[in-house]
Amino acid sequence: MDKKELEQKVDEILSRSVKEILPSKEALKERMMTGNKMKIYIGTDATGSSLHLGHATNYIILEKFRQLGHEVIFLIGDFTSRIGDPTDKSAARVQLTREQVIENTKTWLNQVRPLIKIDDKENPVKIVYNHDWLSKLTFEDVIDIASNFTVQRMLERDMFEKRLKEEKPIYLHEFFYPLMQGYDSVALDVDIEMCGSDQKFNALAGRTLLKKYKNKEKFVFITTLLENPKTGEKMMSKSLGTGVFIDWDANKMFGSIMAQPDENMNQLFIDTTFLSLEEIDEVMKSENPRDAKMKLAWEIVKIYHGEEEADKAQENFANTFSKKELPEDIAELMGSEGENIIDFIIRAGFATSKGDARRKIEQGGVSIDGEKIPVGELILTKNEFNGKILKVGKINFVKIVF
Q1: For the whole model, what pTM was predicted?
Q2: CB of 199 within 8 A of CB of 225?
Q3: N or C, fewer C-beta in 10 Å, the chain?
């Protein structure tokens, strides 16, 4: 690869889906242009078993680093997850067992394989577990690590300030989370840490410790968060029912992307697909919003399910929503005699809570066999509802069976 081609690839990495690079983008570019191999890592506590499109951004960028010959490291926080990151939490997180984290990790690795060549023969991704070094630290080691930080610095974190104001407890062990994540950088002797903006505090703790123990500067590569450009709301939020999850089937994934507001398309193209910026620009300029969104949905489904399934999902979507036909292979869900429709909607996975289900009904987004259900309590019975199709929103269908 000649210098001009290398610079083009480096410039794309440093300009696409990037929120901030510390200490500076210019310094990282200078290092990357030397062609020397660098270590870049991303950490996960694998506290959940399913990833959404918002997580895809990091792995797409990491694959580009890997293709340039850099060493990519996946760090599994099987030790840190037992504490739980207090970031953006108004209360202490429930601790997971190491076994739970390892089980979640298996699912997580399978979900990111379409994004990055983990098992590449020439330059595979290295997978490590921080239990291997954090469990060996002595109490003396922990005191030495902690001596690099002040309580004031810890309390500056927004979530701790909020808990103090609300008189909610802050447990002492929660202060150790950023110290442990920071020590991961020392143990791995990394050059770059990739993270979201919510992990900036922890990543900077790693910069402090790496400088202290190895006199080495670490770059912090902070990626963008998927947000609606008009409202500032997160595009991928499980609690708001707006997430598009990587383990969904092709039809559900396609329909969920088509349900995204038009203003989200450009960022979704940039942050969650492998199309070049030039290709994205052409799509956004030359096609009407619906066609561009169909292209977006097809590209994303192709990544996780392949071209054939993407074609089928596109055809199914067109038949279901353009021709007003029911989708193929509607799932069935067993109802219980006398069950409230709200509970059934939650069991079907179409609402996150009773309040969420009620809002969907009040907004006219819930129907049975094409008829919107009335606001209020609706009780399911076999005689009246067996075999009928429940529809919630534009893309969620299930057949009620008894």
Answers
A1: 0.78
A2: no
A3: N
